[in-house]
Amino acid sequence: MINFVRENFFPMKNIYSSKNICEILIENIKQERITNNFKILDISSLNSIKENSILFLDRKAVLSKLNYDNVLLITDDQNTFNNREFKNIIFVKNLSESWNIIINNIYSHEDETSYEDEFVVSNNSYISKYAKIDSSAKIFNNCVIGKGVEIGKNCIIKNNVVIKNCLIKNNVIICDNTSIGMTGFGFEFKKRGSTFLNPQIGVVIIDDNVHLGSSCTIDRGKIDFTYIGKNSMIDNLVHIAHNVYIGENACIAAQTGISGSVVIGNNVTVGGKVGFAGHIKIGNNVVVAARSGVTKDIKDNSIIAGFPAIDINRWKKSIIRQRKNGH
Amino acid sequence: MINFVRENFFPMKNIYSSKNICEILIENIKQERITNNFKILDISSLNSIKENSILFLDRKAVLSKLNYDNVLLITDDQNTFNNREFKNIIFVKNLSESWNIIINNIYSHEDETSYEDEFVVSNNSYISKYAKIDSSAKIFNNCVIGKGVEIGKNCIIKNNVVIKNCLIKNNVIICDNTSIGMTGFGFEFKKRGSTFLNPQIGVVIIDDNVHLGSSCTIDRGKIDFTYIGKNSMIDNLVHIAHNVYIGENACIAAQTGISGSVVIGNNVTVGGKVGFAGHIKIGNNVVVAARSGVTKDIKDNSIIAGFPAIDINRWKKSIIRQRKNGH
Amino acid sequence: MINFVRENFFPMKNIYSSKNICEILIENIKQERITNNFKILDISSLNSIKENSILFLDRKAVLSKLNYDNVLLITDDQNTFNNREFKNIIFVKNLSESWNIIINNIYSHEDETSYEDEFVVSNNSYISKYAKIDSSAKIFNNCVIGKGVEIGKNCIIKNNVVIKNCLIKNNVIICDNTSIGMTGFGFEFKKRGSTFLNPQIGVVIIDDNVHLGSSCTIDRGKIDFTYIGKNSMIDNLVHIAHNVYIGENACIAAQTGISGSVVIGNNVTVGGKVGFAGHIKIGNNVVVAARSGVTKDIKDNSIIAGFPAIDINRWKKSIIRQRKNGH
Asked: Taking CB atoms and an 8 Å limit, are A110 and B158 in contact across chains?
């Protein structure tokens, strides 16, 4: 069971009630129905709906239950979510803007200039006073370990590594110049610029025995987490976007990029320079040849290659055919 | 209007006259004609021809005007530039070597061991005494901010970021482990090695509200600048080479690489792992699918994919055809 | 002649005799034959077989000579290496595990928490007390230079660079945020996780006049070295894996990745985003077009493109054919 305490990373600036939320969104509200007034203490995702929270719903969201007493739903889609059973719902003009307004009012985060952390110098690295590092872990030089970060037993964090908003279990090795826990690349597509960046208030969780190469970039989850499963081996210059989930025993070669919200099963092997499109699901025991571009869900035990990636034997035949034609 | 003061970044070691330049080039000169003796105070590019400067001309250069009183032309091409109207011109044996000799004599730069900068430690980062950072900007740990750099209002520079030879406007966010303002990959193709590296004496200009991801590399211009337009969103591990110009509202996904002197219009969207060949021009409102390799100029409003990148519908059809053949 | 002293980088914890090795491998041994008892003072590779050493042999290994008096052979392949002439040989159950047990017992290395180095702060960087840096070399801020590293005359090491387990000759320039000398991505494919990582006890050797870009990652050799030849120009975000050998005068553009044990000849030019599969050999004077995926040995003087990379003219024709079909 994976869990984390959001406030350890993103301290709450204000505690609002469900009715207060209407007040701060005021300009953005089309319609509202607040049956219960309750304190907002967390943000929910569809995967993890919590008491006393807000749940943002885009038009693709599917809710398993309708009547939450103390969950405030916020959506811009009056057609999909017009059910009278929703006790607490606000229909807004713009969902991305509403996210920004609410999160910026509730949580402190690194994308605002007022964000603060306090560091001590330890073994030539800056360690937050609010980080917990096991005494058996080894941290090399010029690292930055931010607020709320936990690092488990026998971990080795090499030089110039930045770790923020992250829980690291035991025996994890992280190589030089890698960055973990950064703001994901999330914003409303039509409103660009740093001022419209969606604050990201999730974390990265790195499980036991993971090996992470050099100059990798692992963005944190938007609400929940980016996860790297036990015993996974990640090579250099790999990009792992926000909300990605990688199962146990992954092997991912250099310069591969995994787009947001991709889910990868157990025992998956990925060659170098592979790209994964966002929001796809890769089964267990899948092998992805180097340089593939994976654009769709892939079944368990598949071996794939090419762009768009297909069964490796079909891909090999198509290459042979292309080369034979005209000779 | 974009401008910068070269000497803030590259202090002048010597002030030469146009006739002095002949003396330092001596071995390399084939022919010369110096009508006016004037002080050399800057280096011009074809885009920005300045008084009291030197302008280097390769055989592809097109000059709009011929008779500059106090611009010294230097070229290795006696056929193209044999016009008697040129008042001050030196024909050299090797243009790249002449560049190196002249620039190394005039300007101090980071690719010589004698280069100096002076730093103060501020909030756990090294800030040059000759940098100007707005008091509202926030700089995290282990950064290096070099000589001449200016950082505007409300900027956030995260951890282990290196910023040299760069002007940054307001509300810019730069994520961890990114490097900005490095020497571009410029050298005479036939003479390799660090000792033949062409000194690069331009800068990087990053306009308002840009968001730059982690572990990106943005090289500075050779003479003028590499430019990233307002509201542009750049993801992680993106490479932007020297002299690239990116318009407003760009969205560039992770692991994309943009070769030298590419010009990108406004409102361009680029998927992950895209590559752009050097010296091409991408129109406004262009969308480039992930993993494309763009090799030619692209018209406004195009949607392209593949390698070499073509109209996305043509590309999709060609993929379907390849896969159908033989079944 | 390239050479290095392993102990300068990886201090020996214990000196074992050939018979002691049997004792530490005990559980893993299938059969053994130790004719001579001698001290183990180094680890050999097939390219460099040393006196008083251990040589690990996988089933593909080809030995030029059979009867070494004081070399201890260790292999998991009783069929291939069943020759009675081998004087000192241990047949083990698992070669990768045996490597780990032996190397971890003999050598101190950075992938164990007990590893120690001692640093002094010099010009805003952490320099190991056991590094040798020529007084004419220039090191910028926030660098880490590890134990045993040697840096030659007139080198320039820019900001936030990590250099470990590396010998750097003269006039080398290394740009910001690059990492050199990291543990290669080596482990038994079926046993994943940091606890099964094969210790790597080789180095990186960077020859005269090399220029290395920003955010590159150069892993060290497993036993011998990763080598970058004289005058080679390497752009940004390039990945060079363990045991790669790059000849003189290479030019390698941004975001290229070179897999383990690739050998590249002299005067090779490689475009951006190229990938090389592991263990292949690229001849002299080869040109590889941008975005190629090179999967096989390539002859001298070839110009190649595509994936799998072929002669560039064949590749161009195949592209034209693909695009014409169906029109």
From this structure: yes
